[in-house]
Write a structure and sequence with these properties.
alpha+beta, five-stranded mixed beta sheet, 16% helix
Amino acid sequence: RYVYVGGEVIRPGRIIWTPDLTVTKAIQSAGGFTLYAKENRLSLVRDRVAHSINATLAEKNPAEDPRLMPGDSIQVPKSAF
């Protein structure tokens, strides 16, 4: 059972799911953001529905850091700058 992290992270790929895994923990497990990551516009795909996540806000407020489910996918977009 895995979650997938792609885009602007140091080590994109799959991460073993654990019951306490959140979006920010998954990003940390993938080595963190690259220099060009757009941290406030992550995309969390669950059951073919995309949800926008602000990782900057999630790091400050745990209530904004959703728990992940097996099969979830996080995509970190590239910033324009």
